Amino acid sequence: MSNIPANLKYTKEHEWILVNGDGTVTVGITDHAQTALGDVTFVDLPKSGDTFGANDVFGTVESVKAASDLYCPVSGEIVATNDALNANPELVNSDPYGAAWMIKLKLSNPAEVDSLLDAAGYQASL
Amino acid sequence: MSDAPTQRTPLYDFHVRHGARMVPFAGWEMPVQYTAIIEEHMAVREKAGLFDVSHMGEARVTGPDAARFLDRVMTNSYAGLKVGMAKYTIMCQPDGGCVDDLIVYRLGEEEFLICLNAGNAPKDVAWLQEQSKGFNVTVADECKQWAQVALQGPLAEEILAKVTPVTLSGIKRFGFAVGSVAGVDGCIISRTGYTGSPGFEVYMPATGAEKVAEGIFVAGKDQGLKLAGLGCRDSLRLEACYPLYGHEISEKINPLQANLGWTIKFDKPTAFIGQTALLEQKAQGLSSKVIFFKLDDRRIARQGAPIYNGDVQVGEVLSGTLSPCLNKPIGSALVKVPDVEQPNLAVDIRGNRIPMIVVNEPFYK
Q1: How far is A88 from chain B (nearest CA, A)?
Q2: Identity of the residue in B299, B322, B350 whose CB atom sits nearest the CB atom of A64
Q3: Measured between alpha carbons, how far is B256 from A19 in angstroms, rounded to an integer?
Q4: Considering the domain A9-109, what is its CATH architecture?
């Protein structure tokens, strides 16, 4: 069974979203996603200041087996990226909900958060 | 790919019991990993790993013309091979393209066992039977009778010795012996492998597969033996620069292009199928060649990624993975011949041009 924390929001594409309450969200990929990918070897992230629409590809996560696109769950502007993943991509496997956060995004349309899945909805989508 | 139902090896239950993740491969349901690819890879390099390779096929060639027949269909020579020894070879089409790459074991003066790639086994058996007309031989499909495991790594010999009375030190590289393993009689133990690490491949009657696999696993697990899946089988063979059918060799990529000239014996008394075409290519010069490369980057160049010399595409990637031993991406590519010598080849990965570092010896020896 994969770990699906109740305090997070989710997408069917296996991103998790932490709503920070200051108009920003933090995004990463789920435990289920990292298990399916296997050993993660590279994470390609955007730069601060880049803007994305909901469902746009914002990066790539690569494992020994395959490269997979990362989808932006909501629209907004990148305000921070996790540089630690450059040197230690394996954090995605060991701590997907913590040290392996990927981007922080300033929401351009906060209402989009309401359409994300909750933990039960994500569990049901697996 | 066909929609044919996937087959299961006799070790399917063994894999599920040991927590494998099963995936479809060449028409079979196979374990891609048990724990993690890199961990299993390093276990093979440093200690030992046990693979189920029962999806591989087998064919037996028997009869007074057996050696002469093999010299006709295979690029390597078998007439002079000693009983108890095996040889790697290519089986070519008339145009020189590869039907398959194989290991052929000499069981007796007039008896050979051929190990076939899983995805090619039906095609190979049909080809062998077709070509055997006019020779006094029988080609028998034994794919269902056999199961196969590979025990690979520096501790392989020590672990295998615990479960067999056969004197393993007497088996040379590419030699084999027949004996019992984990109480299962009639096993073929050969000092061969597809990882670049030392070790053995064990062929056993399909009914004895569980007993052999569990016996070896129990004998080795306290020494660090890990079950190893197809995921690390691919990264191990690529570190050793071994070809994989459908990647470095295929119906379109002949053995000369794949740097497998050492498997071709042009001076055999019996000319082999494909010999004329390969000799012509040799005289004319090859249009493209297989190279191996590494990248000073974190991105992996995957199969199909285009290769550039300046603005001109001159090739494409055939295989790519992360080398756990180098902790760098490695791969193979087919590159046009005038460009193959260029020092500034680059591979395009999702719009990024990454310089390729071409290597002339295996990443792992």
Answers
A1: 11
A2: B322
A3: 59
A4: Beta Barrel (2.40)
Task: Give the list of residues 6+ apart from residue B107 with CB closer than 8 angstroms, or none.
Answer: B60, B83, B113, B178
The confidence score (pLDDT) of residue B5 equals 72
Calculate how close chain A gets to B323, using CA atoms only, in Å: 9
Measure in Å the smallest separation between the Cα of B285 and chain A Cα atoms.
36
Residue boundaries of the structural domains of chain B: 7-56+145-239, 287-359
Architecture of domain B287-359 in this structure? Beta Barrel (2.40)
Contact at CB, A62 and B300, closer than 8 angstroms: yes
> What pLDDT score was predicted for residue B3?
54
- Residue holding tokens 């073929």? B188
Nearest to B300 among A41, A86, A93 (CB): A41
CB B247 within 8 A of CB B303: yes
User: What is the per-residue pLDDT for B365?
Assistant: 85
Domain boundaries, chain A: 9-109
Q: Which CATH class for the B7-56+145-239 domain?
A: alpha beta
Q: At B353, which helix (H) or strand (E)? A: strand B352-359
Enumerate residue ranges in chain B where pLDDT < 70.
1-4
